[in-house]
Amino acid sequence: MTRMQRVCILGGSGFVGRHIANRLHDRGIHSRIPTSYRERTKQILVVPGLELIQANVHEPDRLRELFDECDAVINLVGILNEKGFDGSGFRRAHVELTDKIIAACRESGIRRLLHMSALGADAENGPSYYQQTKGEAEQHVLAADDLDVTVFRPSVIFGPEDNFFNQFARLLKLSAGVFPLPTPKARFSPVYVGDVAEAFVTALQDSDTFGKSYDLCGPETYTLEELVRYTAETAGIRRVVWPCSDRLSRLQAKVLQRVPGKPYSMDNYLSATVDNVCAVNNLPQLGIEPTGMNAVVPGYLGKKTERQRYNQFRQMARR
Question: How far apart are CA 66 and CA 123, in angstroms?
Answer without folding.
Answer: 29
